[in-house]
Amino acid sequence: MMKILISDKLAEEGIKILREEKEFEVDCKYDLKPEELKNAIKDYHGLIIRSATTVTADILDNATNLKVIGRAGVGLDNVDLSAATKKGVVAMNTPAGNTTSTAEHTMSMILALSRNIPQACASLKSGKWERSKFNGVELRGKILGIIGFGRIGSTVGKFAKAFGMDIIVFDPFLSKEVADKNGVKAVTLEDLLKTADYITIHIPKSDETNNLIGDKEFSLMKKNARIINCARGGIINEQALIKALEEKKIAGCALDVYEEEPPPADSGLFKFDNCVVTPHLGASTSEAQINVAIEIAETVRDALLGRGIVNAANFPSVDAQSYQFLEPYINLAFRIGKFSGQLIKGAVNSIKIVYSGDLNNYKTAPVTLSIVNGILTPILRDSINYINAADIAKDRGIDVQEVKSNKAEEFVNCIKVDIQTDQETFSIWGTLSGNHQPRIVKINHVYVEAKPEGYMLFIMNNDKPGLVGAIGNILGDGKVNIAGISLGREAQDGVAISVVNVDSEVSKETIEKLRNTKDILFVKLVQV
């Protein structure tokens, strides 16, 4: 008998699915304090949570029988994935459960903003009849700019087309072929901001997307533009938004998410009539709650009963014996993929992976999925995992090719990845050190010996004397400690590469100093 604990409220439809299995004993214990969960978890094989429960390493240490954590929702930020992986616990989520509800809420916000519905409702209820005051605008013929064309963004696009809107999209991982298939036009972020009458955001929040829309971006928009955010707070800089509304740089905004939730009662956003706000209701429909409950119940059931693992964020499908050999390569693959994903320019068209050495004796599909997962993670974050990486790549028109090479390569048991975008070809070689630690050994045509972990500075420069010292001095002045540095060059006096491992994040000011240093051609801080 396997025991399943449901620690956050779940729709009855999901609970019923689990209780129908004779192999399961299901307990619902809501509002457990961390110490109570820590004491209780040792008895359970499965744990189902929503956002209220946080699964820490401390709790996982006590989870002697736990095999599966199921999150009824998209994110897994309330689960210590590293600790779960080390413990051998599969962590899964439900990335598709709230797609329709969030897309519909986005359209509701667009309509409310366009027709002044909240303001007109409040006015009429206060005893006024102000028809001329609330003159609106039509959607038909307007340009909708969608930032992020995943499940939710593409669904919003379908809904908006039914209103007669023209769709333009900014998504670095959207190919022209997929854009054409969906009847949308892929553009740069700058072109989208300059062109769109409505701008809606459907991307995860990350270091790269935090404050994506600020003063500069608002200055590019039309004065009649309206911006909508039902994704994550912080992607739009709220102070910049307030300034844009005050200076009438845009026609209005609609927000379901905020930098701080709940936002302060005296938020400057609340003073504007043309700012429509709701309290994070994107997934708050009866259907969405039922959908995620059913999806996570079925996912946990199948995983515990050995019927397969889906939507796993930290564990690829592979038998135990093979996993013992492949695990360090899966780790290497994700790290070189994530490293590459932060450096490539343009939309990815294809990913070619060449395996050599003993890897050819195993089914390398989990390693391939790990590479694709790593490459796409910097943009897609929680919505991509080892299991759905191949489907997401296919949906976005990315051709993934796996090749096993029998010829003698430069490195034993090597993984070579060639990423073709619409702007460049980026190549990276990875292998394991003698103690099975991941290493990057070649980037494009340059040999390096880099450790892909933590914060890393990738620097391209002209091969001139004194530059390594200059880099060290600038980092020293910025209070950044160098943990390791790997140098390589194409040829003497040619282009050189430096990969610098640092102990902490590097400030924007320090990076700008590096970029402004003579003979430095490119600088990017990545985190692996």
TL;DR of this structure?
The protein is α/β, with parallel strands linked by helices. The protein is 33% helix and 23% strand.
What characteristics describe this protein?
33% helix, 60s Ribosomal Protein L30, Chain: A, alpha/beta, 528 residues, Rossmann fold, 6-stranded mixed sheet
Structure commentary:
- The chain has 528 residues and is an alpha/beta fold.
- It has helices spanning 12-19, 34-40, 57-61, 81-87, 99-115, 117-125, 151-162, 176-181, 189-195, 215-220, 238-246, 286-304, 320-341, 365-380, 389-395, 467-477, 508-515; strands at 2-6, 24-28, 46-49, 68-71, 90-92, 143-147, 166-170, 185-186, 198-201, 226-229, 252-255, 275-277, 348-356, 399-405, 415-421, 425-432, 438-443, 446-450, 455-462, 482-489, 495-502, 520-527.
- The chain has a seven-stranded parallel beta sheet, sandwiched between helices. Strands 14-13-15-16-17-18 form a six-stranded mixed beta sheet.
